[in-house]
Hints:
This protein has 313 residues and is of the alpha/beta class. 42% of the residues lie in helices and 15% in strands. It folds into two domains: 228 residues, TIM Barrel, CATH 3.20.20.70; 75 residues, no CATH class. α2 packs parallel to α3, α3 packs parallel to α4 and α8 crosses α14.
Amino acid sequence: MTNRIKDLFKIDHPIIQAGMIWNSGWRLASAASNAGILGLIGAGSMYPDVLREHIQKCKFTTSNPFGVNVPMLYPEIDKIMDIIAEEDVKIVFTSAGNPKTWTSWLKERGITVVHVVSSVKFALKAQDAGVDAIVAEGFEAGGHNGREETTTLTLIPMVREKIEIPLIAAGGIASGRAMLAAMVLGADGVQIGSRFVASEESSAHIAFKKAVVDASEGDTQLTLKELAPVRLIKNKFYNDLQDLYQKGPSVEELKALLGRARAKRGMFEGDLEEGELEIGQVSGLIHEIKPAREIVAHLISEFEQAKQDVQKL
Length: 313
């Protein structure tokens, strides 16, 4: 059976390993691509020269397709895009910005463009901008989230109803069963982030990976909605935020507490008290750190078993 995501990216399975800041370097992206899915390098935490190095190392370690995720709020976005073109990257996922800004420029250079959205409104804008596919990410997802707080279960069929181009579901997906559910709702494939944080190849600090494995239901919360909504594991920094919220803080006071480089401090450097620990609600279903290849194999095996189980209903 044909699948639009497999055909679009020329991959074996309709799964994308999300390009997450401080988690998705060349090791994870190449391991994911070598396992038959689409690996993404997360450019959001990289200086331009660092991104170039990761792209070159990824090209050296896999002959399969891979891409780069680019948050368009990045301060050196022009340099990032030039490097992507110079290094002949064929697939770019854009997020956190207007898709019209770069889609035409990228497509003129033969690059497949996918844009990440959290609402029907922005899905339609991305389709109108000419992107090749859309990632619709639900409220369950880790990291920065949409303000609409629409869950994946609701978002996917609403977006599917309105767009014609391929649709990738994201948010709360870490198993083959969830993958099947998303595709039944209308997705052509899935993007998975949190599960790959707890992979051996993830560039996250081992302390953060263990915190993800130890997380239970209710251990994450969406906060900082006045700045940019972000889902975090509850820790000292999170509790300090809640104490500040009790005082009715201004945006400036929230920015002052947040400071700079908290995401790096938490996820990359392993400060579990003062760092931002960005992860999805589905962390409660992640129980061990495994190689990316084993994660992919388990996803596909569970997906096929779930299809058989559904036929028995």
